[in-house]
Specification:
Helix content: 40-55%
CATH superfamily of the largest domain: Glycogen Phosphorylase B
Distance between the termini: 34 Å
Number of domains: 2
Strand order of the largest sheet: 3-2-1-4-5-6-7
Structural class: alpha/beta
Strand content: 5-15%
CATH class of the largest domain: Alpha Beta
CATH topology of the largest domain: Rossmann fold
CATH architecture of the largest domain: 3-Layer(aba) Sandwich
Largest sheet: 7 strands, parallel
Number of strands: 13
Order of helices and strands: HEHEHEHEEHHEHEHEHEHEHEHEHEHHH
């Protein structure tokens, strides 16, 4: 396969040129950033004819990640979200014309309404409809509106799970044959069963006093159900002679109940909130945990669960939306209330044989989720979009 963008431009049979809009990637690279950053190299490996537009702060990152790909840099003002959304309507179509794109991929719900060419939009979950109470009102209204618009106007939409597709069909009545399910993958180089040195590095970084710990990874927002996790963990370990710590890793988010619940944790129990962890520590952190607890109320996919599975962590999660689609029989399940979480944790912490079984099953199951397969499904969506006969003006 030709290596440079110019060579790809002259190549025949690589499919339509796709402009991927990476300007929605946040500075902390969480959420949509993880998705875009993993998808793009997999598309390049498959020979996709890509151009990428990004924010200036990400220019060096994408040049290093995507050697030889046509890269456009959006105006500096798009770092402000309202400006970026306005630029998307007029500026993004201009970039698409400049690079000769046949289709635009907008990876985070929104899209230009007068693009002049087909648009593929990624809709990451349906929880703004199914669980409105766990979202801030402004955010809920914004994403519900754009989900509805994209289902009507995009040539194709991509969702990360069958559960999300089913829920969108139920709540919007707007899903027909134009939606492609593309499960996320796991980066096996980054997320793997850790070495003893990697787990030790993670422990040193965290400054753990306890000999073992229960891990959580994710933005601490209401749908992650962290207050119930804290209460359940406290109930499960309070009377143990050597109680495991609880480590809540990830963005601080906006769940105000967390501080209230933490204030009631007894002094002899250890809780750490390290914020975002460096990517190079995640395998050691996840794989070194006694249990990865993820009692989420609503998930369009559940990438932390998959990544923990790849690291050999025994996982305790809920049956909400897409989580069973990811975990299958390789994880343990709980109801989302504190008492049920306590029962689930108590049982796993007391049963090393069960944890070992889950660990082995999780590693095996996670191997079936690859970014290459995800990229193949995106290529089908791009090809279908260019063949769709719809008015995109």
């Amino acid at each position: 396969m030709p290596g440079t963008w110019a060579e790809r431009e002259r190549a025949v049979g690589v499919g339509p040129r796709v402009l991927v809009d990476a300007t929605a990637v946040p500075a902390d690279r969480g959420g949509v950033g993880r998705y875009v950053d993993q998808l793009l190299p997999a598309l390049v490996e498959l020979g996709a004819d890509l151009a990428v537009v990004c924010q200036r702060r990400d220019e060096t990152f994408y040049r290093d990640l995507l050697s030889g790909i046509r890269l456009e840099v959006a105006p500096d003002r798009v770092q402000r979200r309202p400006v970026r959304l306005a630029w998307e309507q007029a500026g993004l179509p201009r970039v698409a014309r400049r690079v000769g794109a046949a289709v635009i991929h907008c990876p985070h719900y929104t899209m230009p309404l007068a693009a002049g060419l087909p648009v593929v939009t990624t809709l990451h979950d349906a929880t703004f409809f199914t669980h409105p109470e766990v979202h801030q009102p402004v955010k809920r209204a914004f994403f519900r509106a754009w989900t509805t618009v994209s289902l009507r106007r995009a040539a194709r939409c991509v969702v990360p799970s069958r559960a999300t597709l089913d829920e969108l069909g139920r709540v919007t009545r707007g899903v027909h044959g134009q939606v492609e399910v593309a499960h996320h993958g796991v980066d096996a180089a980054r997320f793997h069963v850790p070495t003893g040195e990697e787990t030790a590095d993670a422990r040193r970084y965290l400054g753990l006093r306890a000999t073992r710990y229960v891990a959580f990874l994710g933005t601490i927002e209401p749908r992650k159900n962290v207050p119930a996790l804290i209460e359940g963990w406290q109930q499960a370990v309070a009377d143990m002679p050597d109680p495991p710590a609880l480590v809540l890793a990830g963005g601080r988010g906006w769940d105000e109940r967390v501080d209230e619940v933490l204030a009631r944790v007894p002094d002899h129990l250890e809780v750490l909130r390290p914020g975002y962890l460096p990517l190079e520590l995640l395998a050691g952190f996840l794989g070194g945990a006694e249990v990865l607890a993820y009692p989420s109320l609503a998930e369009g996919f559940g990438l932390p669960v998959l990544e923990a599975m790849a690291c050999g962590a025994p996982v305790l999660t809920t049956r909400s939306l897409a989580l069973p689609e990811v975990g299958g029989d390789a994880v343990a399940y709980t109801e989302p209330d504190a008492a049920s979480i306590a029962d689930g944790l108590r049982g796993l912490l007391a049963d090393p044989e069960r944890r070992a079984q889950l660990s082995s099953a999780a590693v095996a199951r996670s191997a079936g989720f690859t970014w290459r397969t995800c990229a193949e499904q995106h290529l089908r969506a791009y090809a279908a979009a260019t063949g769709a006969r719809r008015d995109h003006a």
